[in-house]
Amino acid sequence: SLPGKLAVQAMAEAAASAPAVSQAGQPQPLVDMDWKPATAFAAPQDKPLTINGVSATEPAVAGKKHFSSPAEFIATMLPMAEKAAERLGVEARFLVAQAALETGWGKSMIRQQDGSNSHNLFGIKATGWKGASANVMTTEYVNGKATREKAGFRAYDSFEQSFNDYVRLLESNDRYSKAIQVASTTGDSERFVSELQRAGYATDPQYARKINQIARKVQTYQTIADASTAPAMRTRG
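Above: the chain's sequence. Below: its structure in token form.
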């Protein structure tokens, strides 16, 4: 028979706490994302996704401004990430991971001057942007050294618009053509993220590694969800 929910969760928590290992075999510290064991799970693809009994497609969830846990962030973003990921040819969990890294699991969303949410999930700056924007302090890496500077970022009416603009940016900018090619021809999500970093999507030299680490955590949540919703197997007596 399948292991019980508590057993599956215990195994997943143990896997989540294990240090990442580099290609050279040396342990790598996990990204400090204040990760905690899951208390809520993303729904499997064949079941409606709900949060506190509310469909994730309803405005009350799709337009959330505060997230109490990484699990709630994943559950909210995953349906929109799946649509964007299908267009790019990558795994949805990597887009959720990138959004989690950029926003601190939704707890550090970029705010407009009036305090409203910019819904900017991917840290896209307002360069050449004719829509609303938000000016905030951000961390940039110059010659490997972190510095603080003020920059303008695009603002959207919804998280879905942010996902759509992210895909549009990658597809329309030649600097990301290699990343798009890797995604469409190989479906290798880790290589896709690495190509984004090489193209200069972010100045953080550890950007791709951090996304890949977080993507593994997202997969852990999805594994728990699949196991916790699977029907128990019965044996014939």
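The CA atoms of residues 89 and 184 lie 5 Å apart.
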